[in-house]
RNA polymerase-binding transcription factor DksA (Pseudomonas endophytica), 147 residues
Amino acid sequence: MPTQAQQPNTQSLSGFEPYVETKGEEYMGEPMRKHFTKILHKWKQDLMQEVDRTVDHMKDEAANFPDPADRASQEEEFSLELRARDRERKLIKKIDKTLQLIEDEEYGWCESCGVEIGIRRLEARPTADMCVDCKTLAEIKEKQVGK
């Protein structure tokens, strides 16, 4: 069976190769936890760099335009950037929570039904805390309630 290093052209968007299980490997054993810890730390680092870039951009671009239209355009641009950073701030909190679950060896199981979430789903969304079935049901319920 090929190892992770032998997998050609299988890098994911985040720059990590998909995890390759060995025969008889325990689900969420030490190697899997290390894999997801690396992914989450890299993701968090990327988000933090984006925050720094935004701060620098806003400092560099901040100007008191005399023209109200120019000033409004700049304020709208900054508002959009700040909303994106707020979403990323919330995501960083979720990443930290997920890293704690890994440390506590409680990562990888659905918080609703307790089954394995699955490696591929976790690679697609490392902060997932529900299996596909439970998440689908939760989304259907959410649509019905109209949240």
